[in-house]
Task: inverse folding
């Protein structure tokens, strides 16, 4: 488990997209069905093996697609994303979320989406939820792959880079221009949160609790962040007033929020908002 300083000034918020920024049960079900359909019709994987291969690769490689590529399947990434995400009935499934918008807008930190999904999927979701303009960048499949190629992380032996690997965490932090120790990372996947925790970020599991997750905090939804991490909203400290702010909340705060699990009592001071920056996201 990565050590984390007793107190720090958060400077960046990395947020997963699917099942973290929104929870719509139908979406992962459709995506799973689309993935299995792709494996069946385009990759000609025998029907009886599809479910187990899907699960095995997802577990071992981070995403099913990463596992397929690592095991020799030739995949046109754009075609994969067009089938797996592009066919989602987005406008029926996702609605504008003004409550989420108000919450994100109120957090005085630069925010980045950090997803294993493709850029188009992320943009479509954010647009429909009405929060696209609140993010300084989208760190996604395309940008991780491009940066990974530049740095030699993506190669013949590791053709797809994705959460929860440490390389993906490092690339994301670099894309956001952030330091791990001052970054707050929220994700619904216990495995991803553990990866962020190992990379040194303040890690928050969203939407579930898990005993098998290395995290600093576990919350039922992003909407409880205000109670669970009040320091995220604290007024930036002046030079003579830097004490007494606790991003992770007090034990008393946590006890008032249903299902909030405080894994470690990290006290955190809140920083002045960092200069906003744009992250260049590669196309296809
Ligand atoms: Mg997710």
Result:
């Amino acid at each position: 488990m990565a050590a984390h300083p007793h107190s720090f000034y958060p400077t960046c918020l990395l947020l997963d997209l699917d099942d973290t920024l929104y929870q719509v049960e139908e979406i992962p079900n459709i995506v799973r069905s689309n993935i299995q359909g792709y494996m069946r019709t385009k990759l000609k994987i025998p029907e009886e093996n599809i479910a187990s291969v899907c699960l095995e690769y997802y577990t071992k490689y981070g995403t099913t697609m990463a596992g397929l590529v690592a095991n020799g399947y030739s995949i046109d990434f754009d075609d994969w994303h067009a089938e797996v995400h592009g066919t989602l009935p987005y406008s029926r499934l996702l609605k504008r979320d003004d409550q989420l918008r108000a919450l994100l807008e109120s957090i005085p930190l630069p925010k980045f989406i950090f997803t294993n999904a493709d850029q188009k999927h992320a943009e479509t979701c954010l647009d429909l939820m009405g929060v696209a303009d609140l993010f300084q960048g989208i760190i996604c499949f395309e940008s991780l792959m491009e940066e990974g190629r530049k740095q030699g992380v993506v190669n013949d032996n590791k053709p797809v880079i994705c959460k929860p690997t440490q390389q993906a965490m490092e690339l994301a932090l670099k894309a956001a221009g952030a330091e791990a120790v001052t970054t707050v990372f929220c994700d619904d996947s216990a495995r991803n949160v553990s990866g962020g925790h190992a990379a040194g970020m303040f890690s928050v599991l969203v939407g579930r609790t898990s005993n098998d997750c290395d995290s600093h905090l576990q919350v039922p939804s992003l909407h409880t962040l205000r109670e669970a991490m009040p320091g995220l909203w604290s007024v930036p400290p002046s030079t003579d007033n830097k004490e007494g702010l606790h991003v992770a909340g007090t034990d008393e705060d946590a006890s008032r929020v249903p299902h909030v699990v405080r894994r470690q009592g990290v006290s955190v001071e809140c920083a002045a908002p960092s200069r906003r920056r744009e992250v260049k996201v590669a196309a296809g």
Q: What stands out?
A: Residues 12-23+97-262 form a domain with the Rossmann fold fold (CATH 3.40.50.1000). The beta strands are 12-15, 111-114, 137-139, 183-187, 202-206, 217-219, 261-262.
